[in-house]
Amino acid sequence: MPKSLSAAATRKGILLMLLAIACFASMDALAKGLMLRYPAPQVVWARFVGQAVLVTLFLGPSRFFPTLRSPYPFTHLARSACQLGSTVFFFVSLRYIGLAEATVLADISPILITLGAVLFLGERIGPHRIGAVFAALIGATIIIRPGSGVFSPAALLPLAAAACFAANGLLTRKVGQLEGPSTAMLHAAVFGAVASSLALPFFWHPVAALDIPMFIVLGCLGTFAQFCVIRSFSMAEASVVAPFGYIGTVIATFWGLVIFGEFPDVYTILGALVIIGSGLYVWSRESRTSAPQTQHPE
Prior knowledge:
about 0% strand
């Protein structure tokens, strides 16, 4: 692959990850609001059934089963289970801890993805990428300033979500270079919809008419975010796009202010600047190191 094409693909992968995280953070805020009135399994069900419906409509009946066929069924099964686990653990955690707190705890996933990319995908990382990952983690920690209220047993839920998200990201990076995003999207949607439907009869609560649009938007946000994640990991190295996951903490803090009345303080602003700065540093460095060298005449 030419270096210029690699640089363009990396920048596009980063943009897609930023868009995915923005959608995921918005979806999480919407899910937290819905779970004030509905059980978590019902909200999880809406998220995956929404994706199943949207992907099926996009493909059309004639392309459903051909798209579902894959030479990597066990890889898709594993990544679909990880995606469902990440959603379940994180949504349930929102019942017990704040949106920003849960997000910052789940934001250990970039570290896990970066380490996993080295161990399992053979990617090479230098001190600059490692430094950016840990700088972003410091920024997230500044925002939350973890105390006894955060590190409760409920804190294990977003940590488990982070582990599942990291595993899903690594598997997506592996299979995403071999197949188009439609197959990965469809496998995850079918698995999540079937698994959550099995639990639904035990938790179903009648849905108010005014809440139906919120459930629909939830499914749309999750679907679009997942598409962006798959494309991002397919176009750029996992260790490059992983640090941009920390932007979710900034967005979650914003939604906490707008929806739940959580006002940011000076530490939140400082942490947000650290997170954004680390992401911009990775973007700038990757653009410079991947750019083609222009030959000038003597």
